[in-house]
Design brief:
Elements: E1 2-4, H1 7-19, E2 24-29, H2 35-46, E3 50-55, H3 65-69, H4 75-85, E4 89-91, H5 95-98, H6 117-121, H7 125-140, E5 144-148, H8 152-164, E6 170-174, H9 194-212, E7 217-218, H10 220-232, E8 236-244, E9 253-254, E10 260-268, E11 271-278
Parallel strand pairs: 1-4, 2-3, 2-5, 3-4, 5-6
Antiparallel strand pairs: 7-9, 8-10, 10-11
Helix pairs in contact: 7-8, 9-10
The structure holds adenosine monophosphate.
């Protein structure tokens, strides 16, 4: 695996791969890599692409400074995992490389997507996500971008970004990898105590319970019950909601037909966890 830190090198190596007839698959990450990240690398490799991973803890997407400062970093293990997965290029830019002096932050028109769920609870988060992904896409210009369904709303935001920027890059959304108890793998799980890790499985249980008991009509009692159960299990719940799976418009009264997704975000101590499940 080639490791580079400079934009000029990352662009050149990506371009050379294309000139040699390869398609490029790109997996942007913030590091502290787990099997969920690695599954995206493996998917790109299985598709036969020259596979590029970036690790950059993007300061502009953190709405909470403490969360940014406490973000886990496990670089040498990350490099070993990427080598083992067959990743071809690791791009490790510095903050100054991505946001040089005088960099002017663009504004992305994300419309309604920015005002709901994660957008509502993490002001400015998706502008920061778009800023870094836009920058990385210009550098790498990949054929395909691999994203995790774990960040459901983020996938929709990035789809919108590709529309706004008239990008030719395609998106593939990959399944969420989970711990044996159902907890969605996340770099932030490293910050959970053993006890909290056990409690955290409750998020997945409540999503499953909703799916298994889904019925046409008002979903409000079920959503309230799920929120109460999570609170009882020690979570501070930002939201436990159901939305249209394509538009993300809230659904509180289900017609029994439209494709819907349940999404949740909740704190255990100072660790914020998110998860989602397509319900039908
Ligand atoms: P992050 O490092 O958290 O920014 O995530 C980088 C990419 O990995 C994003 O596209 C995430 O959606 C994806 N990802 C994170 N966790 C998982 C998981 N448990 N399963 C699959 N993909 C994931």
């Amino acid at each position: 695996m080639i490791v580079c830190k400079m934009i000029a090198d990352a662009s050149r190596i990506s371009l050379e791969a294309k000139e040699n007839g390869a398609k490029t698959g790109f997996i942007p990450t913030m590091g502290a890599l787990h099997d969920g990240h690695i599954s995206l690398i493996r998917q790109s490799k299985a598709d036969g692409y020259f596979t590029i991973c970036s690790i950059f803890v993007n300061p502009t997407q953190f709405n909470n400074l403490a969360d940014f400062e406490k973000y886990p970093s496990t670089l040498s293990q990350d490099i070993n995992k990427l080598e083992a997965s067959g990743c071809d290029l690791l791009f490790l830019p510095s903050r100054d490389e991505i946001y040089p002096l005088g960099f002017e932050a663009p504004h992305y028109d994300l419309g309604f997507l920015e005002t709901i769920l994660e957008g509502k609870y993490r002001q400015g988060h998706f502008q920061g996500v778009c800023m870094v992904v836009d920058r990385l896409l210009q550098i790498i210009q990949p054929y395909k971008l691999y994203l995790g369904q774990k960040d459901y709303q983020q996938c929709m935001v990035i789809e919108r970004l590709l529309e706004i920027t008239h990008s030719k890059t395609k998106i593939e959304v990959c399944d969420t990898l989970r711990e044996p108890g159902g907890l969605a793998m996340s770099s932030r799980n490293l910050r959970l105590s053993d006890q909290q890790r056990k409690q955290a499985g409750q998020l997945w249980k409540e999503l499953r319970h909703l799916k298994e008991n889904l019925h046409k009509g008002s979903l409000v009692p079920q959503l309230n019950n799920a929120t109460a159960a999570l609170q009882k299990a020690g979570f501070e719940v930002d939201y436990f909601s159901v939305a249209d799976a394509r538009s993300l418009k809230p659904v509180t009264n289900w017609n029994g037909q439209s494709k819907i997704v349940a999404l949740t975000a909740a704190f255990l101590g100072d660790v914020r966890l998110i998860d989602n499940l397509i319900l039908n």
